[in-house]
Design a protein that fits this description.
Elements (H helix, E strand, L loop, with lengths): L7 E6 L8 E4 L5 E4 L6 E5 L10 E5 L3 E5 L9 E4 L5 E3 L7 E4 L1 E2 L9 E5 L3 E4 L1
Parallel strand pairs: 1-3
Antiparallel strand pairs: 1-5, 2-3, 2-4, 4-5, 6-11, 7-8, 7-10, 9-12
Length: 125
């Protein structure tokens, strides 16, 4: 049986990016970096990461993907990045915009792996 793997694109890493982390646009075309607070989100790394700048790394740009949580997450929470590229609940203040990767498809806590939709967009509080 064939499986639909979705949209996976190979990039060059701007530095360390662990597996199952959020990524954002890198320093130049064709590069990505581990996402941090406030970054414009692009996708999620898969089962492999990159140990250093210049390494090749795949990023998943659609579908439902596995991500590492950086805090307590409830089913349906909008997810953004913490400082280490882990998924945390997005809770912007009134009128504040924040980039989200999508919505949690299962609950979890710090360090656990859960599922998220990959639909980068802005959320306004």
């Amino acid at each position: 049986m064939q499986q639909n793997v979705g949209l996976i694109k190979n990039f060059t890493s701007d530095g360390l990016i662990e597996k199952r982390r959020l990524v954002s646009f890198g320093s130049k075309e064709g590069h990505i970096k581990r996402a941090a607070i406030g970054d414009k989100l692009l996708g999620v790394t898969g089962i492999r990461g990159a140990k250093a700048a210049g390494e090749r790394i795949d990023a998943c740009l659609d579908q439902i993907r596995t991500i590492e949580y950086g805090g307590t997450v409830a089913y349906g929470d909008p997810l953004t990045a913490d400082a280490q590229g882990r998924a945390i609940k997005a809770a912007p203040g009134a009128g504040v915009k924040v980039w989200i990767i999508g919505f949690a498809m299962e609950a979890g806590k710090l360090g656990t792996h859960g599922s998220t939709t990959v639909q980068p967009q802005q959320l306004i509080g």
